[in-house]
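testing teh design pipeline on a random one, pls ignore if ur not involved
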């Protein structure tokens, strides 16, 4: 998992819960990195999972809800760092439908060894989109949060349902209906 995911996560934890919480979740975890991350480094997903689990235990907020909040934060990083990418699109459905064929291609140009989930578009119309998310990691709520922020970015709203297709949450169907 790319380091930017860790550095931004720890920035969010510091902003929302304080530096003491950052120290607490790092020292409570068994991290090969020692909790020292660079944006361009690559780290084990198990480290992120430990940080999330300890943050959840300390705050009483579910991991799924923490991932939603983190995705909202991360979208603002995308807006700041890659405004040209977002400017390519005029509609949230178009942008979400292009994750696999455009956005992830651009991400791989910056982070060639990034392990990204896949999004298979099953159905698409002007007002709806059905996609299958597949990943070795159960971070579908991170994807859901990014989708929510995508609609907000375009001053639009939507109903987004997710249906777990396996117990691990590594295969999920997203059903998106633009309001």
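output:
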């Amino acid at each position: 998992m790319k380091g930017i995911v860790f550095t931004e996560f720890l920035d969010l934890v510091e902003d929302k819960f304080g530096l003491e919480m950052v120290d607490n979740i790092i020292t409570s975890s068994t991290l090969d990195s020692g909790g020292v991350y660079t944006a361009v480094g690559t780290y084990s997903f198990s480290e992120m999972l430990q940080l999330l689990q300890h943050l959840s235990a300390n705050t009483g907020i579910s991991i799924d809800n923490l991932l939603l909040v983190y995705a909202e934060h991360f979208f603002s990083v995308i807006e700041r760092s890659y405004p040209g990418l977002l400017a390519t699109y005029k509609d949230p459905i178009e942008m979400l439908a292009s994750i696999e064929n455009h956005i992830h291609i651009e991400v791989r140009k910056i982070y060639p060894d990034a392990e990204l989930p896949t999004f298979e578009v099953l159905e698409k119309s002007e007002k709806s989109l059905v996609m299958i998310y597949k990943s070795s990691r159960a971070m579908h709520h991170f994807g859901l949060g990014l989708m929510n922020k995508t609609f907000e970015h375009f001053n639009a709203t939507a109903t987004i349902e997710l249906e777990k297709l396996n117990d691990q949450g590594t295969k999920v169907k997203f059903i998106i209906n633009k309001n």
